[in-house]
Amino acid sequence: MSNSKNVYLFGNGKAEGTAGMKNLLGGKGANLAEMNLIGVPVPPGFTITTEMCIEYNKLGKEKTKEMLQAEVEAAIAAVEDIMNKKFGDSENPLLVSVRSGARASMPGMMDTVLNLGMNDVTVEALAKKSGNDRFAWDSYRRFVQMYGDVVLGMKPTNKEDHDPFEEIIDHLKEEKGYKEDLQMTTDDLKELVKRFKAVVKERLDKEFPTCPWEQLYGAVFAVFESWMNDRAIYYRKLNNIPEEWGTAVNVQAMVFGNMGDNSATGVAFTRDAATGEDLFNGEYLINAQGEDVVAGIRTPQQITIIGSKRWAELQNKTEEDRKNNFPSLEESMPEAYAQLNEIQQKLEDHYKDMQDIEFTIEDGKLWMLQTRNGKRTGAAMVKIAMDMLDEGRIDEKQALGRMEAGKLDELLHPVFQKEAMKNAHVLAKGLPASPGASTGQIVFFADTAEEWANEGKKVILVRVETSPEDLRGMNVAKGILTARGGMTSHAAVVARGMGKCCVSGAGTVLIDYKAKTMIANGKTFNEGDWISLNGSTGEVYEGKIDTQEAELSGDFAKLMAICDKHTRMHVRTNADTPKDARVARNFGAQGIGLCRTEHMFFEGDRIKAMREMILAEDLEGRKKALEKILPYQREDFEGIFEAMNGFPVTVRLLDPPLHEFVPHEEANQAEMAAEMGISAAVVKNRVDSLHEFNPMLGHRGCRLGITYPEITEMQTRAIIEAALNLKAKGVDAKPEIMIPLIGTLAEFENQESIIRATAEKVFAERNDKIEYMVGTMIEIPRAALTADKIAGKAEFFSFGTNDLTQMTFGYSRDDAGKFLPEYLDRNILKNDPFQILDQEGVGQLVEMGTAKGRSTRPNLKVGICGEHGGEPNSVMFCNKVGINYVSCSPFRVPIARVAAAQAAVQ
Ligand code: PEP
Ligand code: MG
Question: Is 172 a residue whose pLDDT tops 80?
Answer without folding.
Answer: yes
